[in-house]
Design brief:
This protein is of the alpha/beta class and 318 residues long. Helices cover 34% and strands 25% of the residues. It has two domains: 2-158, 3-Layer(aba) Sandwich (Rossmann fold); 187-316, Riboflavin kinase-like (Elongation Factor Tu (Ef-tu), domain 3), CATH 2.40.30.30. The protein has helices spanning 29-45, 58-63, 74-83, 96-100, 103-112, 136-146, 165-173, 177-184, 200-203, 288-316; strands at residues 2-5, 17-21, 49-55, 88-93, 117-122, 149-152, 157-158, 161-162, 188-195, 209-212, 222-229, 236-243, 254-259, 270-280. The strands form three sheets. Strands 1-4-3-2-5-6 form a six-stranded parallel beta sheet. Helix 5 (103-112) packs across helix 6 (136-146) and helix 7 (165-173) runs antiparallel to helix 8. The relative contact order is 0.12.
Length: 318
């Protein structure tokens, strides 16, 4: 998958495509349905597939510090999109100039002159242009004017509710990891590089891999049974805490993962942590001894979860 950063990096060979537009935060099942339709069209028309997205997201640009937490950082989203088989991603810097751009100019400058779109696929809630004035009817009219087709994908629902990034975020806030995985089509995950910490976990008898989250807000908080990818052929089980560590007066959110029966040097390794089951919310303890006892109970709960999961999988095998 080829990532094009900004209109300035578009080349003549990038013109001519089937495209879609949006944040695609989390790349959930609704997003995947749009991408599947895009891929089908690309095959029919013998054209490359292109996804146009924004950094920052428009909502982040306007909301500033009050913006909702992302489901996926830029690198995580690019990795997810590459796995589904897109040919290209055009990432546009969402700045004051783009925020002021009228819908008609957006179509002319970016879709027509920029990428030469032949067929555009959008979600059922798609809005664009200054103050979100552009809707599907306007887009379809502009498509007829400029010579490209426009189609809107039907709403992708589960249990009668539209799958959306908002719903995924709600599930994560409620620590309902089963629902989040159902909406995403995979377990919710955070990726990052293992960094040096304060070694407090090792002092407590539970060494942890510390992963700086490098984001303003995180949609999960608490203690979870997790697996970690990137260190072995198979994901490694463990227990993770996401939060500010109030017992030791922490001030920033950190992801700490204690892997079971594992003792290797992994600093600077890029890993992915899959959140499978919620154990408890994060809370402050009166002493480090109380925290140590609770961590032991958390490990027992996570091991019990993995044991039950293994038993269930064995029962379900034909």
């Amino acid at each position: 998958m080829h990532i094009i950063r900004g209109l300035v990096n578009l080349r003549p060979e990038h013109r001519g495509c089937v495209a879609t537009i949006g944040n695609f935060d989390g790349v959930h099942l609704g997003h995947q349905a749009i991408i599947r339709r895009l891929q089908a069209l690309g095959g029919q028309l013998a054209l490359p597939t292109l996804l146009i997205t924004f950094e920052p997201y428009p909502q982040e640009f306007f909301a500033g510090e009050q913006a909702l937490p992302r489901l996926s950082r830029f690198r995580e989203k690019m990795d997810l999109l590459s796995r589904v088989g897109l040919d290209r991603v055009l990432c546009l810097r969402f700045n004051p100039a783009l925020a002021r751009m009228e819908a008609g100019n957006f179509v002319r400058r970016i879709l027509v002159q920029g990428v030469g779109v032949r067929h555009l696929v959008v979600g059922d809630d798609f809005r664009f242009g200054r103050q979100r004035r552009g809707d599907f009817a306007m887009l379809a009219g502009l498509g007829r004017k400029h010579g490209f087709a426009v189609e809107r994908t039907p709403t992708f629902e589960i249990d009668g509710r539209r799958v959306s990034s908002t719903w995924v975020r709600e599930a994560l806030t409620a620590r309902d990891m089963v629902l989040a995985a159902r909406l995403l089509g995979r377990p919710y995950a955070i990726a990052g590089r293992v960094a040096h910490g304060d070694k407090r976990g090792r002092q407590l008898g539970f060494p942890t891999a510390n992963i700086h989250l490098r984001r303003k807000a995180v949609p999960v908080n608490g203690v979870f049974a997790v697996t970690m990818e990137g260190l072995a052929e198979q994901p490694l089980p463990g227990v993770a805490n996401v939060g500010s560590r109030p017992t030791v007066d922490g001030v920033r959110s950190l992801l700490e993962v204690h892997l079971f029966d594992f003792d290797r040097e992994i600093y600077r390794r890029h890993v992915q942590v899959n959140f499978l089951h919620s154990i408890r919310p994060e809370r402050k303890f009166d002493s480090l001894d109380a925290l140590k006892r609770q961590i032991a109970r958390d490990c027992d709960a996570a091991r019990a979860y993995f044991a039950e999961s293994t038993t269930t999988e064995e029962r379900q095998r034909p």
